[in-house]
Structure to design on (447 residues):
């Protein structure tokens, strides 16, 4: 019999070990790194940075020589005829009708165009380079927003795990009490109604546990979606995630280090370049053009034909094209005025963003201070509630307390545990906001 029990314990241990190994323990840092690598928003932001280089290449290409080739082949089944007076041909009094052109004509031309001075192209090249920097900053902002979202989802899962653990502990205590009362009832030392009440309490806790399990599963799925993980993977959060750190309040906020402001400042540069691009319409443009071609005409098909019925000749030309804007009805001035309005609107957005960032920083600091006090109070309250529960259980077993007192003590202990979990969650959420206000969200990934 002992051998059978031993084999059972070994089998259960192996099976449990396999189940744990199948789960993937996920720390916050691991979750953040996974999200930055796999989530669609992060991938698209990185592609925007890569695409910015192609925008620069496109703009630079307009400043390089533009070379093109063309060719035509024309067949004229009916040649146009022109009438001449006979006097011109030595035949007075007659009208001479002469066909013009040849039945076949072909040409091949190579054209070259090079911009020598075009202010719009030069401004566009500077704007393209600034756009690359804009997308780099936007990529950082996207990562920070993803970090914030994943951290919130992560802590929501942890809160539910802690609450589920609290429900399970409370259920275990209630089941133990149920066994004690059942023994007292059998011995005639307790009432049957007390046993029925404790059974009802255990059943309610079992139902609450199942609801918590379902809610936890939904939150885990939400977390896996937030980081871009497949839904069939099992995750497990470590127990040491919730830690408070009062020293974070010593970090001074630095609004200038916020990515939101950096992005707006870069957007301001782009708007200034857009204005200069409109001003460039006042500047003249100068370009070089050149062409080299070969022309074939005759009464026979001219391509690959070396007979005397086809005549081939070459031609070429070079030149400068100068365009000077004189008057366009005020269109350019209107575009410049519109660009100025956009710049002023962005300046208002920058000032409003600074105020919003200062507000978020102050609120996060206030929330952390309050959360630290609440966490400390709830920790002491848990210790006290546990002492009350232990004393009430002893008193009940000795007939000095009622079942109602015992159930109330168990509920108070569970409430104290849940209150601590909630206060820890509030602290961690405020901590994320303060780290964000200090412009250090990326430090969560590099810890």
């Amino acid at each position: 019999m002992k051998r059978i029990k031993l084999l059972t314990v070994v089998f259960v241990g192996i099976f449990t070990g396999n189940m744990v190994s199948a789960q993937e323990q996920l720390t916050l840092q691991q979750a953040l790194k996974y999200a930055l690598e796999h989530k669609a928003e992060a991938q698209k932001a990185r592609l925007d940075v890569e695409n910015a280089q192609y925008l620069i290449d496109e703009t630079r290409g307009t400043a390089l020589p533009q070379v093109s080739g063309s060719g035509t082949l024309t067949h004229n089944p009916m040649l146009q005829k022109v009438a001449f007076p006979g006097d011109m041909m030595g035949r007075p009094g007659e009208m001479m009708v002469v066909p013009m052109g040849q039945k076949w004509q072909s040409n091949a031309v190579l054209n070259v165009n090079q911009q020598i001075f075009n202010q719009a192209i030069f401004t566009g090249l500077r704007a393209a380079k600034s756009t690359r920097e804009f997308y780099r900053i936007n990529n950082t902002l996207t990562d920070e927003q993803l970090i914030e979202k994943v951290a919130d989802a992560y802590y929501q899962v942890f809160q539910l795990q802690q609450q589920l653990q609290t429900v399970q502990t409370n259920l275990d205590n209630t089941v133990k009490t149920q066994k004690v009362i059942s023994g007292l009832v059998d011995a005639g030392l307790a009432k049957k109604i007390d046993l029925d009440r404790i059974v009802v309490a255990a059943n309610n806790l079992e139902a609450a546990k199942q609801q918590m399990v379902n809610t936890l599963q939904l939150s885990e799925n939400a977390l896996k979606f937030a980081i871009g993980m497949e839904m069939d993977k099992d995750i497990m959060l470590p127990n040491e995630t919730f830690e408070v750190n009062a020293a974070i309040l010593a970090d001074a906020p630095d609004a200038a280090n916020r990515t939101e402001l950096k992005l707006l400042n870069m957007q301001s540069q782009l708007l200034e370049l857009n204005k200069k691009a409109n001003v460039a319409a006042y500047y003249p443009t100068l370009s070089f053009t050149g062409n080299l071609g070969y022309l074939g005409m005759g009464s026979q098909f001219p391509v690959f034909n070396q007979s005397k019925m086809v005549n081939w000749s070459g031609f070429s030309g070079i030149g400068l094209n100068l365009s000077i804007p004189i008057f366009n009805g005020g269109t350019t001035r209107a575009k410049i005025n519109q660009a100025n309005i956009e710049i002023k609107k962005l300046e208002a957005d920058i000032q409003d963003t600074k105020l919003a960032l200062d507000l978020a920083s102050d609120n996060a600091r206030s929330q952390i201070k309050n959360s630290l006090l609440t966490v400390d109070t709830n920790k002491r309250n848990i210790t006290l509630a546990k002492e009350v529960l232990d004393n009430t259980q002893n008193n009940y077993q000795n007939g000095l307390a009622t079942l109602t007192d015992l159930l109330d003590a168990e509920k108070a202990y569970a409430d104290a545990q849940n209150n601590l979990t909630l206060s820890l969650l509030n602290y961690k959420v405020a901590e994320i906001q303060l780290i964000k206000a200090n412009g250090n969200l990326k430090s969560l990934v590099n810890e």
Summary: The longest strand covers residues 104-117. Confidence is low (pLDDT under 50) at residues 1-22. The radius of gyration is 41 Å. The chain has one domain: 26-75+117-286+330-446.
